[in-house]
Specification:
This protein has 412 residues and is an alpha/beta fold. The protein is 34% helix and 22% strand. The longest helix has 19 residues. The structure holds N-(iminomethyl)-L-glutamic acid and fe (iii) ion.
């Protein structure tokens, strides 16, 4: 460092009632370690140049030389910044009319088959300028941050033409999200069938999408893409260097789990319809089960069988599925409450499923999801006396302060 450079910013969060983190070693938390968390009372966390340099009990905090800013953590609890590994945050417009129809008894699948649903959001998103997409994702990101999300994935999939898919991926990146190309979300109306659409998407969109996205995703479901089409799409994406994700077993078991294992996918997401055979297969694999209880709630669908998955050793992550149709919800603390009350997950399992395990799905578990030296200084301070209020306080305003890379965010 030359004399002219400012020293890196140091921030000490002190006198925290509690600090809780997934235990500091190892990869994704599963089996006996699915809820292995470390709790420190009367704790501090020291951040320097965007990273955590030390955590521990106050009594072990030595003298710090040089300039250190301090943040009073008394009466507050620190948890790692939450990681939302499954959102559809790049969309324009809303689906409130559809929601009103569903409230009166129409089903999501009926509305989709009638040309509403996903395709109505496609129409609105295609009509938007790229700057409008950046604004939309940024607004959604800010809402997620207010609920403690410091890392978010977002999928394209509301463009389904070359221009809007690529603009969506750029907009997600510009807003600081991890972009996933959901090129196989639905078949747009200008194509006669799914195969004809995939011919186009793989030839005309994939080469550029592969440079903008980190992963690819497919909606493997009746009335969307079948297993043969999903295999074709995902294999081409894998060959182009993308990690793989699948929307699977949301309404019907359509072969997503065996396909995910065959192709070495990072995750299968949803799993509301998964039966014994699927669970048996998934628990023996390294594919993460991403559970989306806010989506199951929003669509009045059965909850995924989290207990069977966890008890038998699966890697489990939780996410919002934030989107205008099936889960208009940005809040991971609400997902935590649903996981506790509906999925019967332990609160420690929930913390791992909102931090280190989704970071593993996104390929950033070496720097996100734990409060430990060397990790990014993404820290959530809960304005509550016990970290378990994260799930306990149903729809509560639990997040008080969010540090992103050691900088306190203005949450608005
Ligand atoms: O994960 N199921 C497919 N895709 C989304 C919903 C998208 C929408 O309804 O706009 C999901 O639930
Ligand atoms: Fe989804």
């Amino acid at each position: 460092m030359t004399g002219a450079e400012a020293p890196p910013r140091r921030l000490l969060v002190r006198d925290l009632a509690q600090l809780v983190t997934p235990a500091p070693e190892g990869g994704p938390m599963r089996g006996a370690r699915a809820g292995d968390v470390t709790l420190v009372e009367d704790a501090y966390v020291l951040c320097e140049a965007g990273r955590i340099t030390a955590v521990g009990p106050m009594r072990e905090l030595g003298a710090l030389d040089g300039d250190v800013e301090e943040l009073d953590g008394s009466g507050r609890c620190a948890v790692p910044g939450l990681v939302d590994c499954h959102t559809h945050a790049c969309f324009v417009g809303d689906r409130v009319e559809e929601f009103a129809l569903r409230a009166r008894g129409a089903t999501y699948e009926e509305l989709h088959a009638a040309g509403g649903g996903i395709l109505s959001t496609v129409e609105a998103t295609r009509a938007a300028e790229e700057t409008t997409l950046v604004e939309a994702v940024s607004r959604h990101r800010d809402a997620m941050r207010r609920h403690g999300t410091t890392t978010f994935e977002a999928k394209s999939g509301y463009g389904l033409d070359r221009e809007t898919e690529l603009a969506s991926l750029r907009a997600i990146g510009a807003a600081g999200g991890v972009p996933t190309w959901l090129g196989a979300h639905a078949v747009p109306p200008e194509f006669r069938d799914a195969d004809a659409y995939l011919d186009f998407a793989l030839a005309e969109v994939l080469p550029d999408a592969a440079r903008l996205a980190a992963a690819a995703d497919v909606f493997l479901e009746r009335n969307a893409f079948d297993a043969t089409q999903a295999r074709r799409y995902l294999s081409a994406c894998r060959d182009a260097g993308l990690a793989l994700r699948l929307h699977g077993d949301q309404f019907t078991e359509s072969g997503a789990i065996p396909l995910a294992i065959e192709l070495g996918a990072r995750s299968v997401d949803h799993l509301e319809a998964t039966g014994d055979g699927g669970i048996d297969t998934l628990v023996r694999s390294d594919v993460t089960a991403v559970l989306l209880p806010a989506s199951a709630l929003f669509l009045s669908r059965p909850m995924p069988r989290a207990r069977d998955l966890l008890d038998r050793g699966a890697i489990v992550a939780l996410a919002t599925d934030f989107n205008p149709g099936s889960a208009y919800c940005e809040s991971l603390p609400l997902v935590a409450s649903l996981a506790a009350t509906q999925l019967r997950m332990g609160l420690e399992e929930i913390l791992c499923a909102l931090t280190v395990n989704p970071a593993h799905v996104l390929g950033c578990a070496d720097c996100k999801g734990r409060l430990a030296p060397g990790y990014d200084a993404d820290v959530v301070l809960l304005g509550e006396p016990d970290w378990r209020y994260l799930a306990y306080h149903l729809a509560g305003d639990v997040v008080e302060t969010v540090l992103l890379g050691g900088e306190p965010l203005t949450l608005g």
